[in-house]
């Protein structure tokens, strides 16, 4: 299943921000924040250092007509905040299952922003999922707390490859049954 067979990606409104589709004007801030080693090391897919053109390629993939992932920018401008504070994604795994992932820009760490964004995305359930999965690197307990705060339950340990670390990293795996 791909996004092209679904309705247009919705904008999701929360108190402090909107979750909206990424756009080309986000590339500079994506470069700035995703290029931060602290952000890249807590993801599976962001390389460090961030190569030239990586943000442009990310935005192009994220807005393509045919894709298997919905990508939202956390945009605080409606509440007089910054235009980009992080990224949330839902990757389609199966008919009624997706994987939630995200990163938050360092200036907004420990502000509750990640929990608020994940809760808004889970509540909106834009893909009509029955089940969401997520994982957190075991050396990132703050991310694990975000998932638990959003109704995810721990289901086991695993490992995932981190491009920035060039290594497999132990993870905690979580599930959220929405039905």
Q: Care to describe what's here?
A:
There is one protein chain. The protein is α+β, with helices and mostly antiparallel strands and 179 residues long. The chain has helices spanning 27-34, 37-40, 54-63, 113-124, 141-149, and strands spanning 12-13, 18-21, 69-75, 86-94, 97-104, 131-137, 153-162, 167-177. An eight-stranded mixed beta sheet has the order 1-2-3-4-5-6-8-7, with helices on both faces. Strand 5, helix 4 and strand 6 (131-137) form a beta-alpha-beta unit. Helix 1 crosses helix 3 (54-63) and helix 4 packs across helix 5.
Keywords:
179 residues; alpha+beta; 5 helices; 8 strands; 24% helix
Number of helices: 5
Structural class: alpha+beta
State which percent range the strand residues make up. 25-35%
Helix content class: 10-25%
Gap between N and C termini:
20 Å
State mean pLDDT (0 to 100 scale).
Answer: 95
**Number of β-strand runs:** 8
Task: Indicate the radius of gyration in whole angstroms.
Answer: 15 Å
Described by strand count, sense and barrel closure, the largest sheet is:
8 strands, mixed
What is the approximate shape? globular
Question: Low-confidence runs (pLDDT<50, min 5 residues)?
Answer: none
- With strands numbered from the N-terminus, the spatial order across the biggest sheet is 1-2-3-4-5-6-8-7
Order of helices and strands: EEHHHEEEHEHEE
């Amino acid at each position: 299943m791909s996004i092209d067979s679904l309705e247009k990606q919705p904008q999701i409104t929360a108190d402090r921000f909107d979750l909206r589709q990424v756009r080309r004007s986000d590339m500079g801030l994506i470069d700035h924040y995703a290029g931060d080693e602290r952000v890249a090391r807590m993801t599976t897919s962001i390389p460090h250092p961030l190569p030239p053109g990586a943000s442009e390629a990310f935005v192009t993939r994220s807005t393509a007509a045919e894709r298997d992932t919905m990508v939202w920018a956390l945009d605080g401008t409606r509440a007089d905040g910054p235009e980009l504070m992080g990224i949330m994604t839902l990757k389609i795994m199966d008919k009624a299952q997706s994987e939630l992932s995200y990163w938050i820009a360092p200036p907004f760490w420990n502000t509750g922003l990640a929990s608020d964004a994940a809760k808004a995305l889970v509540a909106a359930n834009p893909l009509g999922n029955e089940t969401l999965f997520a994982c957190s690197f075991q050396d990132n307990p703050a991310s694990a707390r975000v998932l638990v705060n959003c109704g995810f339950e721990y289901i086991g340990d695993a490992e995932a490859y981190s491009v920035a670390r060039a290594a497999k990293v132990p993870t905690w795996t979580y599930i959220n049954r929405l039905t």
